Queue: 3 jobs
Job 1
Amino acid sequence: MHHFTYRNDELYCEELPVKIIAESVGTPFYLYSHATLSRHFHAFYDAFEGVERLICYSAKANTSLAILKLFASMGGGLDIVSGGELYRGLLAGFPPEKIVYSGVGKRVDEIDMALEKGILMFNVESLEELDLLNQRAGRIGKRAQVALRVNPDVDPKTHPYIATGLKNNKFGIDAESAIEGYKAAKRLPNIRILGIDCHIGSQITEAKPFRDALENLKGLIHELKRLGIPLEYLDMGGGLGIIYDDETPPLPNEYAKAIVDSLKRIHLKLILEPGRVIVGNAGILVAKVLYRKKGKAKEFVIVDAAMNDLIRPSLYHAYHSVWPVVKAGTKTIIADLVGPICESGDFLALDRSIADVKRDDLLAVMSAGAYGFVMSSTYCSRPRIPEVMVRKDRFHVIRERETHEDLVRGESLPPFIT
Ligand code: LLP
């Protein structure tokens, strides 16, 4: 459930017509609903009622400071993958002891920063990383708290680019090596073993892969106990899918039930790293129609947003619904919704039945709150677009539109080019 609804044929975000915001900030822009964000966070948190848990929102899905601050104020933790995300997370007010750090390629400077700040846990993805952590922690007289990220080799049945828990993926450590890893970790003086972690992929629309992953992990947890390596935390990662089109993902409480039922017997504190399920349907991308044109084979609607603003359709052939901001009639056309960029891969929707729009009409690309703005770029020297948050009948620009000057910030001309 989200708060983008029609009233008298006009699209509203909460209590505010989207058109009013467009007139004020210009197009294109990202628009987020405060009520939807908080509702989704609550729903996810409440779904695990009765279980000791830490919901570490996965920053990568949407790192806007305003959104991070909202979740921090709701008692959430944070899942990060870079020094930059750590910086943002701390700036937004997350306590370090609620931050977990995943990623196959943590750099020395990033590790040092996280150690110095005292984060809860490093989700370690290789034995070399474990050694480095031990070394860096020793240098400053600290112990690095770790979980090993186990690759449980289950098929999450999602797009191959976002499947992460199969044995041919670069992520985590296979179960056998993980046991060796834990034994090694136990011997390392500056490492404190805190937990076990997995993350099997993203936009997962069934409960079974999560259940399978957990079963695999449980075997390991028992084996570790037998070896005298008790754990405190189980981090199940993120990955719960959302409805973009006609998917039927488990609801947060169905997902929770699938995990909690089998967790009862192992008594570990649970960490979850949801991203998309919290922010995905809390945001839209609003664009304006620049032109219509009929080709020999296809009809095109050219809008002012492009693949540099929302890359998901181009990169994963992802589906995003397209709604008119003002419904002007019931007539529809079948068209490709494309941007101004000079590549045929620059599209937001293909062969789509959309409203019979004309120049200057506004369109909303739905479900764009996750992996939208964060994956945008300035390709073709297109300044990054603003982000706006609505609460009830008020809006606030939480990130302003970049300018042409912003585009060249930091560039300099070498003296040997005159
Ligand atoms: N934890 C870890 C370790 C992750 O790698 C991810 C996502 C998450 C949590 C959050 O997953 P979520 O709950 O959002 O599914 N750009 C792609 C998605 C990439 C996901 C990467 N990792 C997309 O636009 O679909």
Job 2
Amino acid sequence: MTNFDVIVIGSGPGGYVCAIKCAQLGLKTACIEGNEKLGGTCLNIGCIPSKALLYASHQLYEAKHNFEKMGLVGKAPNVNLKKMMEYKEDVIDQNTKGIEFLFKKNKVHMIKGWATIKSNTEVVVDKKIYQTKNIVIASGSKPTSIPNVNIDENMVVTSTGALSPKSIPEKLIIVGAGVIGLELGSVYSRLGSSVKVIEFSDKITPGMDSGLQKHFKRILTKQGIAFEMNAAVTSTKTFKNKVKVNYIKNADKSEHSDEAGMVLIATGRTPVIDHLQLSELNIKVSPTGRVVTDDNWMTNINGIYAIGDVIDGPMLAHKAEDEGIAVAELLAGQKGHVNYNLIPSVIYTHPEVASVGKTEDELKKESIEYKAGKFNFMGNGRAKATFSSEGFVKILTDANSDKILGAHIIGPMAGDLIHEICVAMEFGASAEDLARTCHAHPTYSEAVREAALACGAGAIHG
Ligand code: NAI
């Protein structure tokens, strides 16, 4: 088969979801993937393997810190890194094979190889030309580095190397206190490394609600992660058994250095578009390397679309998925829409951190009169029973209408709890709507209801 309605380039969450949706809507669809396995960064070297390692290392933490308190006594387990990696690979395999199955089920034609775009109707893979009415670029992103740092994915690693270590270093230095640095920092800390994070800014997790940032940093510090804030890493030098990290303190420009067995560079990600030969077609790319699209995700070339990490916006798998579905709907002649105000962000540490909508800082900046209803998990019975009463739910509402404008959670299952608020916000709900909805007891979700109550007359247990 060499003639299609749609060719999707890339099989990450944006690409594979777009391809399946296109096929479900009756379009003759192909998806091209250059890597051996389907699923892109998320399934192979990102979201999924990191969640496997976060889960495994959290079990170890529980065994070491909480088992005895519950009367579960005996020797705490040790880490068998080889076995842990086998478990992680098995989780990856189950997920990537799942996409192969879904492609077959939905009749998405899979093409293996690296694609280049010849024209808006022709895509080339291994010198073979495929004809198509539409092209969707979903080629994802890769870690960025910083000057004077030589990444070898062994001692100086990106998230890719950090997810497949040969051994657990005694000390790990992380450059960048973003999502990747803090999730992987948690994994290594629980597995026994002493972890130090060097961050350029005065805050962790850029863009997050500042109340949440402060609380989150306090918890991570209590868990043993050290922070050197307001400091810019300028270079690294690799020796036989250690890496020297040089950095400058922003305040006085003084030069410092530190050493560790492993250094993780987690300073952001950049779109992967070089191999597509976009410049030959004069497809517009922004100064930051993102493909420029219009409101319908179409590039400046008719029939060529782009979604996910290669275009503007947060580099999140679920944002890419939503864009993939919207483009498929547009190509099938339907309406496609993504509500960019309601894309949740989640950090899968323990406790989890989750946000949606406006932060307090944004509301202040926009001079919107708001009310903040906060409830601490300390008042939640279920959280007390599971050693997870640290953290809170904060709901921000319009002071006049009570409409929910944002929510910020740090606590157990925050990444799941946030979606109740996303749905409420999608329907334009008020905090009172949430507060009047019966929530099962004992669940963590009662903390969401209590925060909604706190936007009105007050929480019951707060
Ligand atoms: P990030 O952009 O979130 O954070 C990078 C941090 O590095 C910033 O705080 C920045 O100030 C700092 N930095 C940059 N250069 C530095 C230097 N020379 N010295 C010291 N600090 C420096 O990047 P991150 O964590 O790599 O994540 C990349 C993308 O992947 C993000 O868009 C993130 O949302 C996404 N992601 C999301 C996940 C999730 O949703 N759970 C998980 C993993 C990644």
Job 3
Amino acid sequence: MLAGLMQDRPLLLPTVIEHAAAWHGDVGIVSREADGGTRRVSYAEAATRARRLASALARLGIRAGDRVGALGWSRHRYVELFYGVGGLGAVLHTANPRLFAAQIADTVNHAGDRLLFVDPDCLEIAEAIRDRLTGVERYVLLTDRAGLPPTHLPDVICYEDLLAGGDADYAWPALDERSAASLCYTSGTTGPPKGVLYSHRASILQAMAVCGGDGFGIGGGDTILPVAPLFHCNGWSSPFTAPMTGAGLVLPGRAVDAASLCALIAAERVTLSFGVPTVWLDLLAHLDRTGGRLDSLRRVGCGGSAPPRALIERLARDHGVELVHAWGMTETTAACTFGRPDADETGAAAVAARISQGRAVFGCAFRVTDDAGRPLPRDGRSVGHIGVRGPWITAGYYRDDSGPAVDADGYLATGDVGTIDARGRMRITDRAKDVIKSGGEWISSIALENLAAGVAGVAEAAVVGVPHPKWQERPLLLLVPAAGAAVDPDAVRRHLAARVAKWWLPDDILVVDDLPRTATGKVLKTALRARYRDRFDAAGGRD
Ligand code: ADP
């Protein structure tokens, strides 16, 4: 081999915040704090604070490879944790405060966290699970002295005191770029949470990839507001993409309702925001009610589940906002594919491209295979299992002995089911566990939901497969009406009947007030399936 002569500089997270400090030092983070106040921290300050944190943690005895947990909302100190903990060579476990207390305790124990950072408004959770935690030695409250609430947690440290004792000139250690930097558990939509261990290298490569024009297209003129929480998929990498490009980072704290978000977007002139479809549906409904405008907002990144067509169209038509649709999962660091139209696609074709999960950004590859693992053609029709591979896709789960997560060709089984068309666009038709298997054929719950959500007055639709004595499963459709609207199930049935095969039509359509959700805002289909399990049983079932 003739070795290249280029410098061998490892891809390490601290290089990102140091870059921002050096080249975009005045830009920074705006953060809604637990006390309701707004705090501004420049990237130059954040880098110094991250150095102080790393050195203070080292003095506390935290070593490379140790896990350190965080239980908090999206705020500036959380961003410092990514850099301070990871930069030291330790691993930041981004615990999910929206899980059940027992599940939070299980993940903290499974991760083996030695230290737990706790936001003041997550203190109750920490106190409730404290007796179950097996490895946590100290608690650090993410606040200053004045904000320190009374607590019966033992050995509590105040974060700002910890920083004050740290070294502002701390020299970041030369780590292997493949070492772990953060640990995130899946949110448990389809099964118990599993740990995904992100490396420095993977986090940086993924962040660089999604900044590109075929991704979210993030640049220095942007101000980014991740509604997706920092504890889930590292806030869709926003703590890295924003400082990397010199974009501002606006963190909403705990208040992610539509009214608070609108106010923050307007006050901070946010240009780009990330979240799951329900966030944007709520935001639109709020703007409809109030007549509000979002002048600064140019794009929203939308993922986690498929956006309804009406959402894409209304954001563009009524607010001039482009919805950039992305697909990804905890296992893929964050987004990997983007549904963007090509130059020759306009009007309905452009919307269709945006509804698709789209093409992979460079670095990722995906394919669709049949039940035997054979690749299927890119014809837009052949439905199969989606596999994905790349340098920021997990190869396995943390402390899990259920065998390899990837197949012989290195593809991770995503659990998603879908097609790839001739242009290379992926379309997810279901999650393997949500697909409705009726009489040996598959019915796409997502296709039915999208159609139902297009009917006037329908705010949201969910379709689940319910056991059926004759057909194994039949679809049940649940509709949530928009505020003040009345929904007629028969009208929705007629709308569907004109658009899908007869055997796809739901056996029953129910109007409900709301839908159960996972910790990350997705419809919790496991709960719906359990709730309506007996709906089509031998006595009551239709055929
Ligand atoms: P959980 O697996 O607990 O829901 P994840 O955030 O890891 O938590 O979810 C990843 C899954 O979310 C994907 O496997 C896919 O089923 C779904 N998903 C993510 N993005 C999209 C999207 N753009 N369209 C449809 N489904 C999506």
